[in-house]
């Protein structure tokens, strides 16, 4: 059948791809909202909102499954080559990354339900909200960079991940201090620390989306010049006393 | 060209796929060794071995990149349909999961380099080694289940992830206790806790490989009947005094 009526085939490939991209954007919208709501529920100690975030993850998972199925169908039916093939594979990776970010938001909301039962830790939930907001902004731009094939914007997203890493490193030190000052803070700080680490990981997934965009547009993965992330594994802060 | 010389095409598709599978198995071997060595370096406080694990991650990353490229090439050249297409997509997902497990092993080795400078925590590194060993066994079986298309073995791997989760939950409580007993343990326990959490996540990635195998063999993702994982987000252990 190839070469026969090929304009028609190309047009329907484009239409299929657009439909899938629309689902990716829908998924992105849901994930962005989940991240912000998870942070908001923590700051406001709002268990109901946390519960909504947890319940909402199902819709994100289902979208990812649908994107996967439709990509597989597109590959099987249209058998795209070269750039088109690369686009479909990129779409699958982007949706996998978004799904992971959604999982982290759900996990954050779970821990919120636990944390509301504990004494709040000074300033922690505000700092976490700022981190979440930064990641959400990166995600918005990463998805825009995909739609616009905007390599510069994708590069910008990569660089901003460094700021999220710095926010995380600062929080890690702060939590250590709180725990050492008062053992009653330990359980809450462990949960808060997990949340901070999960947001830092969200940033990594968003960065991975930006890198996919760069790969799609340039054919090359960016060199690993990105300033490296979690420094706490090099942390040697010893405790006095 | 379709239907012309199709036997030849099928044969070369099989040959290509076999070459890619050989790389997946090589990758699996490297990742298994990295997980065991990372745990061993922690238990023996062996910085040199930890350094080797960190350096070795590059080879795993390169293999993943090669698998990705060769899968894309296979899709473009051979344009497989139906089951063959699904196999190629599964291979890509398996290699992505293996790469993530390798990352966690590297991260574990990084923290080992920090932990050797601190007072050891009683019994922790032995418990972590047992967790790592359990995950490594699951990984071996998950890859075997892929090669043999053995759904029963893949189901078994999924179920064993529950044991890893239980080991993690027990360690989480133990670390909380150590930190509360003596604030000088806090920094070391934070790192050890991260390591334990990372092994628990390795288990999730291995489980995801097993689920891919089930999907490949049966056409359906397993129902989510798997006993759920990290319970610490429901942890409400309040600290007395």
From TrEMBL, chains A, B:
Biased composition (Polar residues): 230-241
Annotated PhoU domain residues: 24-112, 128-213
Domain of life: Bacteria
Keyword hit for Cell membrane: no
GO terms for biological process, alphabetical: intracellular phosphate ion homeostasis; negative regulation of phosphate metabolic process; phosphate ion transport
Keywords carried by this UniProt record: Cytoplasm, Phosphate transport, Transport
Keyword Manganese: no
Location of the protein in the cell: Cytoplasm
Gene3D superfamilies hit by this protein: Phosphate transport system protein phou homolog 2, domain 2
A Pfam family matched in the record: PhoU
Entry-linked InterPro entries: PhoU (IPR028366), PhoU-like_sf (IPR038078), PhoU_dom (IPR026022)
Cellular component, GO annotation: cytoplasm
Annotated stretches, region: Disordered: 221-241
PANTHER family in alphabetical order: PHOSPHATE-SPECIFIC TRANSPORT SYSTEM ACCESSORY PROTEIN PHOU
Quaternary structure annotation from Swiss-Prot or TrEMBL: Homodimer.
Family: Belongs to the PhoU family.
Function comment: Plays a role in the regulation of phosphate uptake.
Protein name from the UniProt record: Phosphate-specific transport system accessory protein PhoU
């Amino acid at each position: 059948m190839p070469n026969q009526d090929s304009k028609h085939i190309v047009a329907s490939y484009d239409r299929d791809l657009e439909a899938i991209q629309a689902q990716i954007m829908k998924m992105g919208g849901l994930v962005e909202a989940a991240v912000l709501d998870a942070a908001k529920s923590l700051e406001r100690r709002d268990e109901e909102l946390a519960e909504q975030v947890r319940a909402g993850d199902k819709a994100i998972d289902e979208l990812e499954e649908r994107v996967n199925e439709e990509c597989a169908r597109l590959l099987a039916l249209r058998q795209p080559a070269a750039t088109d093939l690369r686009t479909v594979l990129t779409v699958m990776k982007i949706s996998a990354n978004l799904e992971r970010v959604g999982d982290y938001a759900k996990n954050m909301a779970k821990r919120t339900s636990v944390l509301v039962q504990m004494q709040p830790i000074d300033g922690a939930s505000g700092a976490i909200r700022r981190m979440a907001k930064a990641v959400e902004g990166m995600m918005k731009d990463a998805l825009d960079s995909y739609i616009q094939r905007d390599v510069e914007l994708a590069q910008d997203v990569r660089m901003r991940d460094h700021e999220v890493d710095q926010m995380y490193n600062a929080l890690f030190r702060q939590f250590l201090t709180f725990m050492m000052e008062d053992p009653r803070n330990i359980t809450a700080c462990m949960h808060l620390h997990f949340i901070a680490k999960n947001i830092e990981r969200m940033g990594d997934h968003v960065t991975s989306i930006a890198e996919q965009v760069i790969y799609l547009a340039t054919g090359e993965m960016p060199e690993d010049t990105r300033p490296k992330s979690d420094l706490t594994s090099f942390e040697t802060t010893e405790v006095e006393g």
